[in-house]
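Worked example 3 (structure in, sequence out).
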């Protein structure tokens, strides 16, 4: 039995096409991975913004409860309730304060409001740092696609007028 040996000329069309499929696959795979990283990164941003909004609303609700249950320091109760949604090393900051509302209370008296503000520094998230590195590698693209800080705020009226 004789082994068949195929020989292609050095300049044949078949020989010049070797490796093209691997090259096309690698270029397509790079683009697909960049797209998946972008979807994951922006999905993580939207998820974190939703977590901040929910936590600030919980803190505002706790401020109302603290005020009507007779606690003197409603802002600290608001921040402790808002921060209960996050782990201690999460990088989320809470600021709560009481101030006069922008609107009048009942019978035209000045009402008091509690404001709960939650902030998060996105630079402390490794996934987003990787995504920023990929964006910076693109030609002609700045690094400002990803916000450096997420912020959410809730304002609630805690009294109708002068206590």
């Amino acid at each position: 039995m004789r082994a068949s040996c195929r020989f292609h000329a050095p300049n044949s069309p078949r020989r010049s096409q070797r490796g093209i499929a691997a090259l096309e696959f690698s270029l397509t795979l790079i683009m697909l991975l960049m797209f998946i990283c972008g979807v994951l990164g922006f999905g993580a941003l939207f998820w974190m913004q939703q977590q901040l909004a929910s936590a600030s609303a919980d803190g505002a609700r706790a401020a109302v409860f603290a005020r009507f249950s007779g606690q003197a320091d409603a802002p600290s109760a608001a921040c402790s309730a808002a921060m209960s949604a996050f782990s201690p090393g999460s990088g989320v900051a809470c600021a709560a304060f009481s101030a006069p509302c922008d609107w009048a209370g009942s019978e035209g008296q000045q009402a008091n409001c509690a404001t709960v503000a939650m902030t998060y520094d996105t630079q402390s998230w490794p996934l987003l740092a990787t995504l920023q590195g990929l964006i910076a590698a693109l030609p002609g693209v700045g690094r400002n696609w990803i916000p450096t800080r997420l912020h959410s705020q809730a304002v609630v009226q805690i009294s109708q007028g002068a206590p």
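Notes: The chain has a mean pLDDT of 82. Residues 96 and 116 are 4 Å apart (CA to CA).
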